[in-house]
Amino acid sequence: xxxxxxxxxxxxxxxxxxxxxxxxxxxxxxxxxxxxxxxxxxxxxxxxxxxxxxxxxxxxxxxxxxxxxxxxxxxxxxxxxxxxxxxxxxxxxxxxxxxxxxxxxxxxxxxxxxxxxxxxxxxxxxxxxxxxxxxxxxxxxxxxxxxxxxxxxxxxxxxxxxxxxxxxxxxxxxxxxxxxxxxxxxxx
Length: 188
Known about the structure:
single chain; mainly alpha
């Protein structure tokens, strides 16, 4: 498996989160709602490892951070796999609850999934060569957009007392990751 193990990690953690949600929920709507929430939660750390890979090695050049940076593509693919499982759970949660979403509420997240798909499809050497500078633009813009969606999703929960711990956890992780990227950029 070599450096590809983060892909397997993304698949396994996503599926485990779905199973945990299905196991613990009271009814179908609750089960799929939990599965959707939990797949997003386990996807965040995988995403943040991808988001921080080059910054970590720049700030702390150690064997561990070098290994993460060398496996960054596989961390990204692991995140994409986990978030594909999340998308399935989210669709099932919406179906089970009967909840209707407005088009305006679907655009930010839907765009994030299009970005994830584009980044996944271009995560190979042939696409890098074919796209040239545009490859870097796509992946830089894309990873920051996904970061923004995660940050806004968790920030939107800050006003809900029942979800406050989850909101603080997510916002704090996202802002800490941004701070690390800014520190690394400043050092470069």
